[in-house]
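Justification of computing resources. Each target in the renewal requires a structure prediction run like the one illustrated here; the chain below, 696 residues long, is used simply to show the kind of job we budget for.
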Amino acid sequence: MNYKNILSISFLPFASILGQTQQTNTDAPVLDEIGVKDTQLTSLDLSRATILSQDTLETRQVHSLEDLNGLFPNLHVSGNGIKSFGDVITMRGIGNTQFFGSPGVQMYIDGVPQGNVFSYGSDLYDLEAVEILKGPQGSRFGKLAPGGAINLITKKPGETQTSEVSASYATFNTQKYNISSSGPMDDQFSYSLGVQRSLSDGYLNNTSGRDNDSETWNGRLSFHWDGGTGTKATLGASFASHELGAQPLVRRNQADFYARSVDEDEFTKIDQNQQFLKLEHETELGTITSVTSRNDWDMNPNVLDGDLSLAATGMPRTLKTTISQNLSEWTQLFSISNQDINSNQWSLGLFFEDSEILGDSTRLVLEDNPFFAGFGADENKTTSSIESHTLGGFITYSKNFSDKTIASFNLRIDSFKKDIARKNSSSSDGNYTLSKSFEIFSPTISIEHKISDNFSTFATIGYTEKPGGFSAFTNKEQSAFETEEITSYEIGFHLSEKSWNFGIRGFLNDIKNFQFEQPAIGSSNYYLENAEEASVYGLEIESLWNLSGGWTFAASYGLTDSEFEKVSTLPALVGKQLTFVPDHSLSLVLGHELDNGLSYQVGSRTTGKTFFWDNTGGNTKDVIDSYTLLEAQIGYTFNDWEFNLFGTNLTDEKYYTSLVSSLKPLTSTNGGLTPGPAPGVAGSPRAIGLSISKEF
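Resulting structure tokens:
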């Protein structure tokens, strides 16, 4: 492999400043995309995190986690089409497995952890900004995030009462209605409220069964108390309710890209509620913080017609999958930190998490088909319980060697205990009870050096681990993951002037025991394994120009080279690109704002080639080629009214957000049945819409 030579060349301009670093690896110096205007993000250092402001979220039509694809270099969401269930989120190649592996990228809302990836609230609403933190995050929010973190920052109350209502209508009878309100209740109490109602008829052309229609409610309410003596408290709650039609899963290489005809009336129901309490108290030593949260997520059920209908073959058959799943989680963070920016900074913290995942799936039901009668049982029923108990502690220390150089040290230790109890109706090796403990040690050293007022450089080296665990979708022999070990390196610089910003970073993740989970063709189980060695390296470039005459241009690019280097159990994967990890991403946006309240913007998002391997390692055709989505927006602001005409995927690109290589839909060939290409989750076609909002 030649990545070490390439990285060496890339890092030559920075070799002279190795040994001079950034504040902690929780915050890598990068850019906010379009700036943050008229916001209350004073607590964020925008030079240290990639920030997407509320304005950018609205103009670029970012309504879900999947919409973040392409906007942040080397952040990718492989969307399964049923909110977050089955999604894989990767950052610099570090991510989760589809079925209940530990997250590589942890999501938070205002610093409160959101459980496992399948339970992440995929709808983005009532937000002040989205903050992206890359590389291992050992102390920023308490919970270990080995690959990076997504922090959703909600709107906070100001000194005056503000409210906003908005409505939008777009193609496919897609409707969204939002209400938000915040402000003081008296001298000490304030509140913030956000509610969203969304509906859509969906874009599938389903001649039988439901389309991918949806009806969704989202809401959050929080109360804030400031005693004025250094003591603050926030009590918050949120809920989500989703009623979804068919998963947008379609056959590949068909004449009508969005065509579907199924025997089952598919649907998914998901409900979620979360509560949290945050307490802060300032002392002479530092600020003491406590964050307590409870999260309950329930999918009951998800129904899928797994054969995508074989009616066309003349073979009467129904292949049906029904999955119900529940997550219950409690977390607790205690921390103390000094906030004096003029002195050396430090923090100490203790984090606890207790979670349980209950699953009940009937994965194969074959009905009224004489062809399959000779195979005996026509049902594969699995029930499972996965429990996880985590106790972690961390310490960070940052020392100012001079007014230009800061060095930081972060040490974290975690203890995990995980248990699984599984029963399977069709195989004896599917019935088992297992327990395993994992001890994880995560140190990180960072240095930042400010060469001038507008030029800074940084370097980071760290080691972290992603805990092992269990999968409920395989047999006893392959049920357990080993701990994934990640040694990460990062180096780069950041330039800024009054009218422009530019940042570039090079990174390398050297991975031992890389966790992966792949479909097992010819079996109802999944193939679960650890690759002895894998690597991910690349570059990330972000830039912003505020041009004369009200013009703004922003560009970001991520290049990722990922590779299985050693896989003893499946050598066919060696040398191949990691599953779910695109090889590049690109975002471009050009905007113009006029003095009369009129503005317009055009942008594009590109996602690179992505592979989806099965247990053979030879399915090279199960790949999503690079695709680009074009968007545009025209806005007009008048007094407290705002009007936006928007379009997404304007070139009507036909693309998939994920492939499901465990399904091989059969076709009739010479009197027999032949597996076709793995189906894909179809992305949204062109959509045009209008939104109107009123602030008062």
